[in-house]
What we know:
It contains six helices and three strands.
Amino acid sequence: MEDLKLGAVEERFAEIIWANEPLGSRELAEICRRELDWKRPTAYNVLRKLCEKGIFRNENGVVSSVLSRDEFHARRGERFVAEEYGGSLPAFIAAFTSRNALTAEEADEIQRLIDDFRGRK
């Protein structure tokens, strides 16, 4: 399974790319200098690591995402449920709701998701 674990700084870096893509690698380094106080080699090293993880690509100096923000978070959530709850979404929901009350709106939204899924079958 792909490595989608990001530290807080990597996550902030990823957000910068998603908010500005496609962008030149030099432009990315400049944004990182302003917003993260990084030197250019730091930005390039973090970019290389996230490209190796398959989240972004840097082709001819143009940085863009392989995984959209939504796809990244969906895959990370799937991995979490798989690793922590044996892939059982009901087990995850049971654990979550045992400590966190759902609002009526949240329960309705979950029900809508279930109904939509059943309607696709």
